[in-house]
């Protein structure tokens, strides 16, 4: 797939995306990336359309070749307090703020933009259209997955290493058997009525 590059902006443009809005456990993670036009990265695409091995290889290349990149998150506690949409926007704000090079414009995957100190536009399906958003989706996904493996080591009976916190049949069965862990999102319906383990 040929990914479109942003044009018509004076100054650095960052792509922003998040990973982890749908899971029942763990933080939501966002990334912001400013690509270097002089160092193109082949194979960028929506992270969900790439194998784990390809995502990991691209994540290394993105870190090496980008003009700037940053990853940030919003915690389970923030998700439960704010709601998942507002927590996702907060994680995006944090990622953009952490960029070593301040962007002049941000392109955000989805239909909502966080409040940023630069101009911003929402791009529905942007992780499959805009290279910088695709790069951000890859960083967010790989960082979140790595974090879920850490949580799996702490709470192995939920199977976070397999489903990354998403509401699979196996995850729901584990919740019924063991109750909710401290890293589960209490505001999400399948978790709300369960006791803490």
- What is the class in the CATH system? Alpha Beta
Oligomer: single chain
**Strand portion:** 15-25%
Question: If strands are numbered along the chain, what order do they take across the biggest sheet?
Answer: 3-2-1-4-5
The mean pLDDT is 93
The helicity comes to 25-40%
Structural class: alpha/beta
**Through-space gap between termini:** 45 Å
How many structural domains does the protein architecture include? 1
CATH superfamily assignment? Answer: Ribonuclease H-like superfamily/Ribonuclease H
Query: How is the CATH topology named?
Result: Nucleotidyltransferase, domain 5
The geometry reads as globular
Spell out the helices and strands N to C. Answer: EEHEHHEEHHHH
- The CATH architecture category equals 2-Layer Sandwich
Spans of at least 5 consecutive residues with low confidence: none
Q: Taking Cα atoms only, what radius of gyration do you get, to the nearest Å? A: 17 Å
Number of helices: 7
Q: What characterizes the major β-sheet?
A: 5 strands, mixed
Helix/strand layout:
Layout: E1 13-19, E2 28-34, H1 52-65, E3 68-74, H2 76-82, H3 84-97, E4 105-109, E5 119-123, H4 131-154, H5 160-163, H6 169-178, H7 189-192
Helix pairs in contact: 1-4, 2-3
Tags for this entry?
alpha/beta, five-stranded mixed sheet, Nucleotidyltransferase, domain 5, 7 helices, 39% helix, 16% strand, single chain, 5 strands, 197 residues
Briefly summarize what is shown:
The protein has 197 residues and is an alpha/beta fold. It contains 7 helices and 5 strands. Strand 1 (13-19) and strand 2 (28-34) form a beta hairpin.
């Amino acid at each position: 797939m040929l990914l479109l590059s942003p044009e018509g902006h004076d100054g650095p443009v960052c792509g922003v995306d998040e990973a982890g809005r749908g899971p029942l456990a763990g933080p939501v993670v966002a990334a912001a990336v400013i690509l270097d036009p002089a160092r193109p990265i082949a194979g960028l695409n929506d992270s969900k359309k790439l194998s784990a091995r390809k995502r990991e290889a691209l994540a290394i290349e993105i870190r090496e070749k980008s003009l700037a990149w940053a990853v940030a998150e919003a915690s389970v506690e923030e998700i439960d307090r704010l709601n998942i949409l507002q927590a996702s926007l907060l994680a995006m704000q944090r990622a953009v703020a952490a960029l070593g090079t301040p962007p002049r414009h941000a392109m955000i995957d989805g239909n909502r933009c966080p409040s940023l100190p630069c101009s911003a536009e929402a791009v529905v399906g942007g992780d499959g259209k805009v290279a910088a958003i695709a790069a951000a989706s890859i960083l967010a996904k790989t960082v979140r997955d790595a974090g879920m493996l850490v949580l799996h080591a702490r709470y192995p009976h939920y199977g976070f290493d397999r489903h990354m916190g998403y509401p699979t049949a196996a995850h729901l069965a584990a919740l019924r058997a063991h109750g909710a862990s401290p890293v589960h999102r209490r505001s999400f319906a399948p978790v709300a009525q369960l006791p803490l383990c």
